[in-house]
């Protein structure tokens, strides 16, 4: 299989997380299409993709690798536990394929115990449990040499404003994230270059407490004890588009604030619930995606592009659950290279023309490999 070039422009490394490859393609109105596969099988698919030159890194939630039992929150510390053995087996597979770990994140959304949130759960016992699950995720990330610990806002939000303790929620959130920072420092886990916040505006019913990149930066600067440790990984186009934000502006703003850690990458129909389309797939988003990479290029930002999307439900093949997942990884890698290639075409054109309209049209012509001269020549020919 041919290698796909990627390391042009802003992208230094491509990461494909466990949760994207393992995803069984259920949605709120349709059950799973693919059988769930074991984390070792996911690791093997990722290792194969790395050998084929499609990805260089991965990421995971704790639960993507090993199950969590609230009665044994420190099982990973016992080298003879099933948890430790499984983690080591996965690590060996990834290491042999040369895959590094971009970020470790804690699942505070899947387990019914966290149905009223994780770090902002109104029950202090559940908040304690969430913090201990964060600690375990941080330890697992350390085992894999993860560069970041990520907090995705997940179920930390509200469905009923009257039932929300507005005086407390942001203090609880700050307490939880400060705790994550302190734990990393106390344990002297030097693999972590920092922590990231991944904002998201809503779930099917709830509003989330950190809806956009702007909210996340404000929270880091004003409410957290160690603002320099924290930055943001926006999800583009999805999460910001859900709130009608523009991805180009989001990356430019985060770079200006020195808060852009890495990208979560996929595609999205504006104002819909999280589509998680693969990059450039679906009915819209091409222009925004290309201009986003172009902006990053002009700003001189370089970093990890992490896919965060799912294959189309129509492409889930229950009879070939591994093959269709391989195809999905390849499609993501192709889409990223395609977007980078198109963004590269915008590098040279003279940018500010007499009118903004002309600037926009000329930029898009460069993008599509069409020249004004060709269009005018064709028009002249037709007149004759
Ligand atoms: C959810 C989302 C998560 C995070 C990881 O929309 O993007 O997958 O990226 O917890
Ligand atoms: Mn994401």
Structure summarized in a few sentences:
It contains 13 helices and 11 strands. It has helices at residues 18-22, 39-51, 62-65, 82-96, 124-143, 169-186, 213-223, 238-242, 247-256, 286-299, 321-345, 356-368, 372-383, and strands spanning 11-15, 57-61, 100-105, 148-152, 157-158, 194-198, 207-208, 230-232, 235-236, 263-265, 303-307. The site of manganese (II) ion has 4 residues, from loops.
What string, H for helix and E for strand, traces the elements in order? Answer: EHHEHHEHEEHEEHEEHHEHEHHH
Q: Care to count the β-strands?
A: 11
Task: Report the average pLDDT across residues.
Answer: 96
Structural class computed from helices and strand pairing: alpha/beta
Listed once per kind, the bound small molecules are: D-xylulose, manganese (II) ion
Shape: globular
Helix content: 40-55%
Amino- and carboxy-terminal Cα gap:
49 Å
Give the DSSP E fraction (strand runs of 2 or more residues).
Answer: 5-15%
Radius of gyration: 22 Å
Q: What this model shows, in words?
A:
With 384 residues, the chain is of the alpha/beta class. It has two domains: 11-347, Divalent-metal-dependent TIM barrel enzymes (TIM Barrel, Alpha-Beta Barrel), CATH 3.20.20; 357-384, no CATH class. Helix content is 43%, strand content 11%. The protein is built from 13 helices and eleven strands. It has helices at 18-22, 39-51, 62-65, 82-96, 124-143, 169-186, 213-223, 238-242, 247-256, 286-299, 321-345, 356-368, 372-383; strands spanning 11-15, 57-61, 100-105, 148-152, 157-158, 194-198, 207-208, 230-232, 235-236, 263-265, 303-307. It has a five-stranded parallel sheet. The protein has a four-stranded parallel sheet with strand order 1-11-10-9. Helix 2 (39-51) runs parallel beside helix 4, helix 5 packs parallel to helix 6 (169-186) and helix 9 (247-256) runs parallel beside helix 10. It is globular. The termini are far apart. The model has no long low-confidence stretch (mean pLDDT 96). The protein binds D-xylulose and manganese (II) ion. Manganese (II) ion is lined by residues 198, 235, 264, 308.
């Amino acid at each position: 299989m041919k290698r796909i070039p990627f390391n042009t422009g802003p992208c230094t490394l491509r990461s494909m997380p466990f949760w994207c490859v393992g995803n069984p393609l259920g949605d709120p109105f349709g059950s799973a299409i693919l059988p769930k596969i074991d984390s070792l099988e996911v690791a093997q698919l990722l290792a194969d993709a790395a050998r084929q030159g499609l990805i260089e890194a991965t990421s995971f939630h704790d639960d993507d690798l090993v199950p969590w039992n609230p009665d044994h929150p420190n099982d990973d510390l016992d080298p003879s536990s099933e948890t430790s053995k499984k983690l080591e087996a996965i690590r060996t597979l990834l290491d042999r394929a040369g895959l590094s770990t971009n970020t470790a994140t804690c699942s505070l959304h899947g387990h019914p115990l966290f149905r009223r949130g994780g770090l902002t759960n109104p029950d202090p016992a559940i908040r304690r449990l969430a913090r201990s699950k964060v600690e375990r995720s941080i330890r697992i990330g350390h085992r894999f040499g993860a560069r970041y610990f990520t907090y995705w806002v997940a179920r930390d939000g509200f469905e009923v404003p009257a039932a929300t303790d507005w005086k407390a929620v942001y203090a609880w959130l700050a307490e939880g994230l400060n705790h994550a920072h302190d734990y990393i420092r106390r344990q002297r886990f030097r693999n972590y270059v920092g922590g990231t916040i991944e904002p998201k505006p809503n779930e099917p019913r709830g509003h989330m407490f950190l809806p956009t990149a702007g909210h996340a930066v404000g929270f880091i600067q004003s409410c957290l004890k160690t603002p320099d440790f924290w930055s943001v990984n926006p999800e583009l186009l999805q999460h910001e588009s859900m709130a009608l934000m523009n991805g180009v502006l989001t990356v430019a703003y985060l770079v200006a604030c020195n808060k852009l850690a890495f990208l979560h990458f996929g595609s999205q129909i504006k104002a819909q619930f999280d589509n998680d389309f693969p990059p450039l797939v679906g009915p819209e988003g091409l222009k925004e995606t290309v201009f986003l990479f172009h902006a990053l290029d002009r700003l001189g930002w370089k970093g990890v592009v992490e896919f965060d999307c799912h294959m189309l439900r129509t492409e889930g093949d229950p009879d070939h659950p591994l093959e269709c997942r391989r195809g999905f990884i390849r499609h993501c890698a192709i889409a990223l290279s395609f977007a980078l290639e198109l963004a590269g075409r915008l590098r040279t054109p003279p940018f500010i023309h007499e009118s903004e309209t002309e600037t926009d049209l000329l930029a898009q012509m460069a993008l599509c490999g069409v020249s004004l001269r060709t269009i005018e020549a064709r028009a002249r020919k037709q007149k004759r």
